[in-house]
Amino acid sequence: MTTSGNRERFRRAAAEERPDLALLCLLIGAESDPEGGEAAIDAAQIELDRLAGELPADLPGDGASGAGGSGPVPPGGPQAWAEALRRLLGETYGFHGTPADYRRLDSSLLQAVLTRRRGLPILLSVVWIEVARRAGARVYGVALPGHFVVGFGDPDGEHVLADPFAGGRTLAASDVDLLVAGATGERSPVPPTLLRPADPLDTVLRVLNNVRAWAAARPEHSSVQLWALELALLLPHRPMRLRLEHAQLLVERGDFLAGAQELEEYADLVATVDPRSADTARHAAHTARARLN
């Protein structure tokens, strides 16, 4: 698959009414490894299906997807799903994370996470979500500050949270408070708003943010930062600051003309709401064009 073909597929997948989280994450992986192409994407989808097929057939129905039964979530349902995923993915297959995984790009690439069975919390959570979803669970991601976990059941009723980074360990409210405190330094109960299901596109943007952060700390990998930004800019809704970051990166990489043009476009977009930022961007564009001489 060509880079342009991969990006067009990513753009179309992101624009779907119900975006396919697994596919979007796999397309991010394909951007990092174009040689893997469609074959690697298909192999990863098959692996997710295979793992889902290894879950017990008698798990309680979710009351939402229609798989595994229908009606209200039965008592113990979310806990049964969480435990089944912990045993299969955490114990049998050894999916988990360690601090060292934060230093690896492939910890943010779904194809590699499925192969290594190691990754960042958000990618391990994608594995949990996609395997459970395929088996008929009511499952969703929870984007805590600095950590990503998985919810089973009804977010407004009976539910269980699990931490795939810790092999699928279920989390009490106090455990969630400790996770957030470790990331933010704020030692207070986590408000219910932080426990809402994460939107798939917000999850994808967070994955790309992790890739950008990894590359930004390693200037020799500015090409990785560039493709992560360019994929993020294909999402239907993205922060305006990404346009500025992309323009600045183009200038840093020596593409002065394209960077200057994008700086000017950014200035035009924000001029009415943030004239100071617009003036700064226009000055940066002028400086970039001057470097062409």
Automatic annotation (TrEMBL):
Domain Protein SirB1 N-terminal: 44-209
Disordered, as annotated region: 57-77
Family of the protein in this entry: Belongs to the UPF0162 family.
Protein name per the record: Protein SirB1 N-terminal domain-containing protein
Organism field: Streptomyces armeniacus
Taxonomic path: Bacteria, Bacillati, Actinomycetota, Actinomycetes, Kitasatosporales
